[in-house]
Amino acid sequence: xxxxxxxxFRYEYLGKQPRGHKLVVLKSPSAVKVxxxxxxxxxxxVVCFTYMELHPHKTVAILRxxxxxxxxxxxxxxxxxxxxxxxxxxxxxKYPRVPKQVNDMIDEILAVLPxxxxxxxxxxxxxxxxxxxxxxxxxxKRPDECLMVMKLPEVSYIFF
Length: 160
Known about the structure:
Residues 5-156 form the Vitellinogen beta-sheet shell domain. It holds the Pfam family Vit_b-sht_shell. The longest helix has 20 residues, at 100-119. The protein has two domains: 1-69, no CATH class; 71-159, Lipovitellin-phosvitin complex, beta-sheet shell regions (Single Sheet). The chain contains one helix and eleven strands. Strands 1-2-3-4-5-6-7-9-10-11-8 form an eleven-stranded antiparallel sheet, with helices on one face. By secondary structure, it is mostly beta strands. Helices cover 12% and strands 61% of the residues.
């Protein structure tokens, strides 16, 4: 990866040490990496974002934060292809380590999804899916109609 941009954000309070952050963007033809560091501790990044195009049909975005980018972790994978001989899109959102507030917000959203899915005429299957992971597959049935499978940690929904 080659350096693409560097931005320094510096600010000073009256009579105090200068503070700020340094944003570094590295780029290659199929990836982008963004790192944010505190200028007081430049060896320890606080936010790391990576976007990779693994091949023309699959991309991955990863956001890490905290001390040395190890405390929190969220990722999104998107892939296009064929499902049951039809054009399809698959998306996976993984959140193995997130702050408690974010986890609570995700839990609240997941709590209302069964009602929304029921009103939208989704059928459901209670099954244990990977925890801290939400995935969705959409495939065309006809040019104006699609089928969708959504897997949540406790249940899967299917819409035909």
